[in-house]
Amino acid sequence: MSRAEQVAAGLAAVRRRIADACEAAGRPADDVSLVVVTKFFPASDVRLLADLGVTDVGENRHQEAAEKAAECADLGLRWHFIGALQSNKAAAVAAYADVVESVDRAKLVGPLDRGAGERVLDVLLQVSLDAPGSGNRAGADPATLGDLADAVVSAEHLRLRGLMAVAPLPSPGGLTPDEAFARLAEVREAFVAAHPSATVLSAGMSGDLEHAIAHGATHVRVGSAVLGPRPAVK
Ligand SMILES: *Cc1c(COP(=O)(O)O)cnc(C)c1O
């Protein structure tokens, strides 16, 4: 199989899973958008994806993302930054990203707003679904979302679009992905009541996208199920 055939097969399988999950949840198939996570994979794969109709790609490391976005600038893709964001890199990320999904503290707002220049940058707030104190994965404590949202709303070049989350790593006594996304749905309900236009919910990856769609995800971020296993080292 050529690489193009592999990618086409992976993409078709994931699109089928999304359609099936939407049907199972009683949601229209176009309710859920696919962001293909291309981290660790070459720009040539991004080109194949664009040929296959993919419009949104996700990256989690600034240097790699910046290079790939420049190499693929002719494709008209929407670039989602989904990784841990250092405040000293935030302005640089805002220069090429169309959506920053991993905003988890107010300190990022100023640099993102400046880095966006005259563009408008879509922002999602990353919510932690970890047990308090477990510190495994990034994200804001749900209790701090109100203040963080206020900071984003008051920034001239940022547009608050919704929430993003990653299911916690498995741990004894920890939440399953289904439980974690059920919790996320509650957090989101309260959030959207306060910010009615911030309806995006980015949740679900290769292993758990069905659970995320059952709990209201509007965007799934899928890497390995489309592109295959990531190389261990770049
Ligand atoms: C890598 C990554 C994904 C995609 O993970 P897969 O398991 O390969 O689908 C999704 N979201 C975030 C935040 C990631 O870092």
Textual characterization of the structure:
The structure is a single chain. This protein has 234 residues and is of the alpha/beta class. It has one domain: TIM Barrel, CATH 3.20.20.10. 41% of the residues lie in helices and 17% in strands. The protein is built from nine helices and eight strands. An eight-stranded parallel β-sheet has the order 7-6-5-4-3-2-1-8. The longest helix is centred in the N-terminal third of the chain and has 22 residues, at 3-24. The mean pLDDT is 95. Bound molecules: pyridoxal-5'-phosphate.
Task: Please state the CA-atom Rg, rounded to the nearest Å.
Answer: 17 Å
> What fraction strand?
15-25%
For the record, what CATH class applies? Alpha Beta
For this structure, the CATH topology is TIM Barrel
**Tally of helical segments:** 9
Determine the mean pLDDT.
95
> What overall form do the CA principal axes indicate?
globular
Q: For the terminal residues, how far apart are their CA atoms?
A: 23 Å
Backbone structural class: alpha/beta
Short description:
This protein is of the alpha/beta class. The protein contains nine helices and eight strands. It has a single domain, classed as Alpha-Beta Barrel (TIM Barrel).
How is the secondary structure organized here?
Layout (H helix, E strand, L loop, with lengths): L2 H22 L8 E5 L5 H9 L4 E4 L2 H10 L6 E4 L5 H10 L2 E5 L5 H7 L5 E7 L17 H9 L4 E8 L11 H18 L5 E3 L6 H6 L4 E4 L1 H4 L7
Parallel strand pairs: 1-2, 1-8, 2-3, 3-4, 4-5, 5-6, 6-7
Helix pairs in contact: 3-4, 4-5
The site of pyridoxal-5'-phosphate (PLP) has 14 residues, from β8 and α9.
